[in-house]
Amino acid sequence: MQSRDVAPRPAPRSSAGRTIDVEQAEAALVEHYPRLVRLAYLVLPPTLGRGRRVLTAHALVQRALPRRRASAPVIPAQSTGRDGDPGYAYVRLQVVRAALEAGAPTGLRAWPKRAQLPPLLPQVWGLRLFPRSGGADELALDQRLADLSGPARAACVLRGLEKLPDGDVRAVLTGSGVHGSDVTAALREAAEVPAAQYPLLGSPEFDPCALQARPTDLTRRRQHGRAALAAVAALAVCGALVALPGGGWGPDGAAAPAYAQNPAAEAALDPGRLVKISPAAWKTSPRTDFSVWPARGPLTGDSALLRRALAVWARPGATVQVSSTPDTPSGGPAGPPQLLYAGEVDTARVVILYDGLRIARYAEPKDGTAGAALDFARVDGASGVDAGALVLGRADGNVRYLTAPWVTKAGERDLTKPGAGVMGLTLTDGVTSPLASPAARAGACTTWNVLLLTDALGTRLYSDLAELVPARLTAGRPAAPREATGPQALRTWAPFACSLADARGQGVRTVNAWAYTRQPLPDASGSASWVCTRAETWRGDGSRVLAQFHTPGGIFGAAVAKAGDVPACGPRDPHVLAGVLWKSKGGRWYLLAAGDRQTASIRTTGGVRGSGQGHLLTVSAKQGAQAGLEGRLADGRAISGLR
């Protein structure tokens, strides 16, 4: 007899397990197939990609059947319908072992194991299959699992999905070929995933049996068909060349391996190797440019977003909208670039990167990657004043800027109204509130809003010219331009602000306005202003020069001559000469010509004849007359008029 106060001892487990046959294992596999495939999908390394993980998980489960009678470990399944089922325990052990083998690194001297080879079955052609997307919690859990080692990931899934205690988890890992010390380390590493996230393992995000289907790249598929025909011919040619003495074309010498095997190229696409500058680095650095900007934004730790941005930079797909300023290389980075920003801006997720030569801005919609855009801007040699701000995003005719860390204040003003005040802009972690942008404005120009940035050295003026980097505005003589923030500089710019539209999309770095002279009008109606504006680009060439004329009482000036890639009106050749046909209030036509104050004489050629000493010339002319201008400087050098 046994006392009621004494509990009966459980029967000891058999160390030898139980023998099962193929029919038992097949019955367990068919009954619990969705759970086994989910288990394999979660244990497989995320580096395979969602589509390949789905097919590999199905292949591993389908290959888990024994070829003959086998011994199954006595490890309970801990769920209703699977307790004590030796067939299920055996199949689960085979699935975990195969999934761990699939994630093991391959060696150069050892043959790959069967689980490491692409599955023969199942195969899907012309479609991409992947589970349904979950929410932010599922994404966070997927990232946590991706950071774990293979055994630790298996331990976490066995705990959370199979609900096995640590003793049984240890037994499964040991049976799967994991060594004793590695099992202990895996259990300890798996403990980093909180138990509160275990229920998420059963969500549709990780269900490889409930799939979505999308076509593969149709354009690329057609191109591959054509390329296959060309490859057959190329293979025959290469075979003949390889058979030539000396090894065909010859050795590559010091050339690096192919791109896909180049360590530098691979490092450039690794989000974990992105350069992230500390927030205080600019305070002690001798440089003030983009290289000392800190990494800002709430998504700087989103590895998946950063990985997509780097991959699109290196290999933009056919659906990606790619734009760049003139002469800006659009290829991938040579090494790990610097992260400047990652976050949500209006309706998009935005990543801004810098590689020492270019700014690259990647943007994708918040609800997916369809419609992603990639923009490039050249910024080599940027100084502190040129590295004041970057365009973060545009929406509804407005623009947001990411400012330099040394910027303490931001504002907005209308350049056409020099007497108007400045409207303050809020700065949140370097991001400005939206301001109206003239970059994409169509129709008549009546206003031109510009950005004012203030730091410890003063205030500067910038204009959005439909590029990633706003152009800095200056005023004064070409040899010594000043910031266009003073009263006189603002009055100089006001009639000619709308002429900035001529420089949009040209890779402009700075635009200087020089009021080089005033000319009395022949009908005694006052004096007209002559202003030369010169736009310099980041690449050096492609400069644009406008000679502009403004009469008293007029709101806006008029561009009367234009030239590109000329030194006139610049620091190398600070001289200018231009003319215009002008009609007086009395109806008479005149040719008015003006040079800078170093011009000693001017004469006309062509349809109007006249000459005079000094830097101003007024000659009677006929409507529609065509004339050329020639001048001579005080030192005897000749100067030609802009046309």
How would you summarize what this structure contains?
With 643 residues, the chain is α+β, with helices and mostly antiparallel strands.
Describe this entry's structure for a reader:
By secondary structure, this protein is of the alpha+beta class. The chain has 13 helices and 31 strands. The strands form eight sheets. Strands 12, 13, 17, 18, 19, 20, 21, 22, 23 and 24 form a ten-stranded mixed sheet that branches. Strands 5-9-8-7-6 form a five-stranded mixed sheet, with helices on one face. Helix 6 crosses helix 8. The longest helix is centred in the middle third of the chain and has 25 residues, at 218-242. The radius of gyration is 36 Å and the shape is elongated. The model is unreliable at 1-16, 76-81, 244-250 and 252-256 (pLDDT under 50).
Q: How much of the polypeptide forms β-strand, as a percent range?
A: 25-35%
Mean pLDDT: 85
Number of strands: 31
Task: Tell me roughly what share of residues is in helical segments.
Answer: 10-25%
Class derived from helix and strand content: alpha+beta
Distance between the termini: 119 Å
Shape: elongated
| Rg (CA only) | 36 Å
Number of helices: 13
> How is the main sheet built?
10 strands, mixed
Which ranges are low-confidence, i.e. pLDDT below 50, for 5 or more consecutive residues? 1-16, 76-81, 244-250, 252-256
Give the topology.
Blueprint: E1 18-20, H1 22-31, H2 33-43, H3 50-62, E2 70-72, H4 86-103, E3 127-131, H5 136-147, H6 150-160, H7 166-175, H8 180-190, E4 211-215, H9 218-242, H10 263-268, H11 281-284, H12 303-314, E5 321-324, E6 338-345, E7 348-354, E8 358-365, E9 373-378, E10 389-395, E11 398-403, E12 409-414, E13 423-425, E14 427-428, E15 431-432, E16 435-436, E17 449-455, E18 458-463, E19 471-475, E20 482-483, H13 487-493, E21 508-520, E22 527-537, E23 544-550, E24 558-564, E25 577-583, E26 589-595, E27 599-606, E28 610-613, E29 616-620, E30 627-633, E31 638-640
Parallel strand pairs: 5-9, 19-21
Antiparallel strand pairs: 1-2, 3-4, 6-7, 7-8, 8-9, 10-11, 11-16, 12-13, 12-17, 14-15, 17-18, 18-19, 19-20, 21-22, 22-23, 23-24, 25-26, 26-29, 27-28, 27-30, 30-31
